[in-house]
Sequence to fold (291 residues):
Amino acid sequence: MNAQNAADYPVHHRYVDADGVRVFYREAGNPNAPTLLLLHGFPTSSLQYRELFAELKDRFHIVAPDLPGFGFTEVPEARKYEYSFDSLGKTLEAFVDAVGLQSYIMYVFDYGAPSGLRLAVAKPERLVGLISQNGNAYVEGLGDAWDPIRTYWAEPTQANRDAIAGVFTLEGIQWQYTTGVADQTLLDPMMWQMDYMLMQRPGNNEIQLDLTLDYRNNLTLYPEFHRVFRERQVPTLVIWGKNDPFFIPPGAEAYRRDNPNAIVEMLDTGHFALETHGKYIAKRIREVFLG
Fold:
């Protein structure tokens, strides 16, 4: 494909019905170009990829859905959706079929990793590349910030459930953005304010607590994720905010265990590396996947 002016490809904001869910997604670029499937994490949405859209839509076809429980995706009450990572994975399976994605380079971050890697297990032949930005798939990648959550996993009492609720406050969300970031003037406060406002939808707090509890089940699937890494050996860029208190550098280095050709880079920033290093990450995606 010849390079195009990015202005030739506006970002479209769409909905599609998939798995009984009205999935909101952003899309840009030439559909004949390599597809980037961008999967967001907690507590944000596809909005977190706004800079990658701006930087990469001239050379990639970019698709970024909002997962159920996040952003602008709508889950009808009658759907009686079970908020688990198995469910998120199944919704992603239906989503890629609904929008006709037959192959993609998958970008996973935070919750996008266990959700998207379930999709990779279900449809391994469609995975042609992998970018993990603080998208954990190894036990050694879980940092000390998980300790209160580990307590909740071990004893899912109401008291332990209440003890982690601070993560969902405005202060708790802002902390996730700012921790480990040396120059906080690079951070747009719109992001944590927007995340917090969307979290205030009726019932969303309980949804997030359910997902936090279910996260323990991701660990049992790690061997399946590793099997896909070993069998597919797709071009892989692991680019990591090394000061992330949740997903720590050993989790990034571990990707080389199953794919020795994985490129692993550490950035001097926190969990939301795109907020401080968006242009650099876009540059590395171009270099690794376009040559």
In short: The first strand starts at residue 12 and ends at 18. The chain has a mean pLDDT of 96.
